[in-house]
Amino acid sequence: MIEVQKLKEAERVVRLVMIVVLITAGTSKFFSNGGFVTYYSSLFQGDLRINLPAILVDAFLRLIPFIEIGLGILLLFSRTRIVAIYGWFVFMLSLLVGHYVLEEWAAVNQMLDYFLLGLACLILPCHDSLLTSPREVSRRHTA
Predict the structure, then answer these.
(1) Does the reported pTM lie above 0.90?
(2) Is the per-residue pLDDT at 131 higher than 80?
């Protein structure tokens, strides 16, 4: 059987990866000078089997960096971890649907890795603090 402390360390690593992915993605979109929205907006207005209203696509594309940074911040705190993980699933599902609409089949398949990352974070035990070692926390509780 795997020690609980090792599982907690694994959860920490998974959560940190999720945080870095979200904060990096959100920040890069903020500093793209509108390039992100312009690029993807034009793709969604192409010759596709499923056509979404441009106003909805543009609104969602403009929200994405806020969602990414918001989820990244929520993942920093153990108290908001579960909400952030479910937010991660909903957000990743929305991206998966977007890639499906764009008929980017390889990207749809690659999204499954992100779901597994969230699933690992969900099922692994969490410690009291992302920054405090589980050993330190257990020492504090036994002292």
Answers:
(1) no
(2) no
